Amino acid sequence: MNCRNSEFLALMSNKPRNWPAIMPLARLASRLLALAAVAAAPLRGDETLTGQQIYERRCAKCHGVQGEGIAEHYAKPLAGDRSAAELAAFIAKSMPPDMPGSCSEADARLAAAYIFDAFYAPPAQARRQPPRIELARLTARQYQGTIADLMVAFFGQPTPDIHGGLQAHYATIDADGNGKGVISRIDPEVKFDFGLSSPKPDEIDPADFAISWTGSIRPPATGEYEFVVRSPNSFRLMVNDRKTALIDAWVKSGQETEYRRSIWLPAGRWYRLELYFTKSGQGVKKPEQLRAKIAPAAISLSWKPPGRAEEIVPARCLSPREVRETLILATPFPPDDRSTGFERGTAVSPEWDQAATSAALEVAGYVRDRFGDYCGVVVPDKQHEPSLREFCRRFVERAFRRPLTPELQSLYIDRQFERAPDLTTAVERVVMMTLKSPRFLYLNQGGANADPHDFGSRLSFALWDSLPDGSLMGALAGGQLATREQLAVQAQRMAADPRFDAKLRDFFLQWLKVDQIREMRKDADLFPGFNADVAADLRTSFELTLDDLLADEKADFREFLLTGELFLNGRLAPLYGVELPDDAPFRKVAVNAGERAGLLTHPYLMATFADASASSPIRRGVLVARSVLGRALLPPPDAVTPLAPSLHPDLTTRQRVTLQTSAESCQSCHALINPLGFPFERFDALGRLRTTDNQRAIDATGSYLSRTGDAAKFDGARSLAEYLAASDEVHTALVEKLFYYLIKQPIRAYGPDALPTLRRRFAEQGFNIRRLAADIAVLAAIAEPQGIPATTKPQGN
């Protein structure tokens, strides 16, 4: 707009008829004139400006008075996580765009301090636009876990408290085909080769005996598990099913001795397992069958967990205690939003709504087919109505996580039994209405009027991604869940549950960006010992190392970054300079003392964040910056392919990376990334220790400028890890990320004191990651969150 001041004032005073239509334009012109007046104000030689004045005179014309951005200049808001010192350095070097470097360092520091405190830093953003709690639906993981626990809750499903194998019963078979028990014991694993003998030849006939193994199995990760049974004899394997075998070779045909079948198993729960084996001619004395009866007897039970190598099912994943079968939903759900780094359920798509409907139908059918289990009724008739109504009442209360009011009792139960053509249909309708109700599908409905039932629900979903168990419901019924102290007692109890172990374990996999198992390929000429089996073993090694750290009573987060021990087996040992027998199972060993530093230098992580033929300081630096330090990094403006070693055969990897990212447009991010990735250069693309790259000595030095402006220098990965383990910045980032992962809401929506309180507690408790998770769950359960008024609830019943 090129009008002069007098012309604009005349326009303002005369107000034409179409004034409403040009009001926005007039406001814009007025604003631009005001900014121009400020910018054009003469400076006296002795005038000292504040940071705010410097910003308003020199920066606001492009960035807006409140840093909101101006479309024709710089549309993005001024917000981020650079420190004030980093902002000052950037302003002094690059601002203003038309005259970079013309701003003095003193003025740059003043302007940066004002920008940082007024609207740039996260606390300033929270003051200007307080984060709000979003009404959240169940994520796919929460829905599946809730259904699984809901269906076993009627039986008081206990958590097996004995680990270490399966209950085994050995019996000899007489001429009439009857079994006589001889041995009862716990077998840590199923891997037996009896040859032509038997488990106890003096009491068990080598030609006629049977074995049963019963108990439960706990998968370490969610995914597809391939079970493998090898035996020349008859057997039947049941997994999470009392009626249908996963692998049935009871009637043998041909010479097959290896059988495979897969099943999807969510982590954090125990599943029923039964394996029945027999070597018996069942009393038949024909000569050809007599010859068959002296055939060898052998059996082994293995599995192939997702992304891992096949192994004998280990004792740590087995229990002799039996559990009921668990409903594992077959209905697929669409992926949840993970744009914030962790999954959340803040959007409802038609696909998700359809999946929820299909799942409700699946559960209704599951209940219908098991009336005998749930209601004690096989063929319902009028005399069974009271027991069916009682089942429905308990079902709805558990699903809604609170007792039913008379109104809800009438709507969800009484009305369905009155209007349904038969009792079976009535129960199905109750189940489907309940599972489609917002009271089941949505969390955080209590808002500012939350009661102990809301507290219990928040606690259980934070720690288990599922509904309260019987103990928690009992505490609620007894009025023992109203205070922070009472919630803390329950949280500590719940932290001993395998569902909590699975959730905390998954956090670290997501934190280190290895939750999605990717194919790992390496240059066969450079790394001839690497293959798919080694890659799978590396994944197993990483998960065992993580499990070991989480299982430690102290669970000290600093050890996650500092431990020099990891798990290796006979296949991995030679690659990483450790002497173990070729067939050695995984065991904990110390590797490269003084160089290895916790999970960050684990061979699996180093190999994952590397290229096919070389290390990758960029990928490793991004991991540290984003995940560990919690720094925000913009995606590169253009897709850039790393320089191939063949293009610069005389350069080291560090030199190639420095060359490729030397442009000014790259340095805004790579000035942070590269110095955090270079300390890992002593580890090659397989995560093996090395001293040279391209026949030159490794330069593993790096640096970091913290948010508070403190500069740190490192030489090697361990030096960097020691800095990170002691860093308040890292601890703060971890607390914030773990809070979002557990609660699926921003921590700043729980008030300005939530983050510093949890961070302080974390330090006071020796950086115990398990206690931190429990503290987070308690704080979020009982806090009065900002952003959800008392009346905010999803529409409908």
What would you say about this model in short?
The chain has 797 residues and is an alpha+beta fold. It has 6 domains: 1-31, no CATH class; 42-128, Cytochrome c-like domain (Cytochrome Bc1 Complex, Chain D, domain 2), CATH 1.10.760.10; 140-155 and 333-442, no CATH class; 166-319, Jelly Rolls (Sandwich), CATH 2.60.120; 445-494 and 727-797, no CATH class; 520-723, no CATH class. The chain is 42% helix and 12% strand.
What tags apply to this protein structure?
797 residues, alpha+beta, 7-stranded antiparallel sheet, 29 helices, 18 strands, globular
Overview of this structure, please?
The chain is α+β, with helices and mostly antiparallel strands. It folds into six domains: 1-31, no CATH class; 42-128, Orthogonal Bundle (Cytochrome Bc1 Complex, Chain D, domain 2), CATH 1.10.760.10; 140-155 and 333-442, no CATH class; 166-319, Jelly Rolls, CATH 2.60.120.1560; 445-494 and 727-797, no CATH class; 520-723, no CATH class. It contains 29 helices and 18 strands. The strands form five sheets. Strands 1, 2, 4, 6, 7, 9 and 12 form a seven-stranded antiparallel sheet that branches. Helix 3 (51-58) packs across helix 6 (105-120) and helix 27 (728-743) crosses helix 28 (754-764). The two termini are 55 Å apart.
List strands and helices in order, with pairings:
Layout: H1 5-14, H2 19-40, H3 51-58, H4 60-63, H5 84-94, H6 105-120, H7 122-128, H8 140-152, E1 166-173, E2 179-187, E3 191-195, E4 209-217, E5 223-230, E6 234-239, E7 247-249, E8 258-265, E9 271-279, H9 287-293, E10 297-304, E11 311-312, E12 318-319, H10 350-368, H11 371-375, H12 385-400, H13 406-419, H14 423-436, H15 438-441, H16 452-464, H17 470-477, H18 484-494, H19 498-511, H20 532-551, H21 557-562, E13 565-568, E14 587-590, H22 603-608, H23 617-628, H24 653-660, H25 664-677, E15 692-693, E16 696-697, E17 701-705, E18 711-715, H26 717-725, H27 728-743, H28 754-764, H29 769-782
Antiparallel strand pairs: 1-2, 1-4, 3-10, 4-9, 4-12, 5-8, 5-10, 6-7, 6-9, 10-11, 13-14, 15-16, 17-18
Helix pairs in contact: 3-6, 5-6, 6-7, 10-14, 12-13, 12-14, 13-14, 16-29, 18-29, 23-25, 27-28, 27-29, 28-29
